[in-house]
Amino acid sequence: MKKHIKYLKSLGACKEAIDYADQYDYLQEAWDNCERGEWMMWLLCYQDGDVNSNYVRAQMLIGEHYIRCKFFTPYTKQDALLFADIIREYFPTIRME
How far apart are CA 4 and CA 10, in angstroms? Predict the structure, then answer.
């Protein structure tokens, strides 16, 4: 089993996300090509549970920015792509702990 797949399973990632990530040899490759912003946010949140950390604060700012843009409209594929781009702008690399 690939190291990043084992890691995602240990965090409790959903089967769909694991199947997606399994297409890639490294977590960073999956991150770079991901079109599901909600998956990316989930991974960021599950990696760092300290709500006082700057990392978590930055995550919250990203979420707040997105919510302001789309609060009362349905979540679409285009939204997922936009959200993924916003997240990658703040977090261009992903780590495995």
Answer: 10
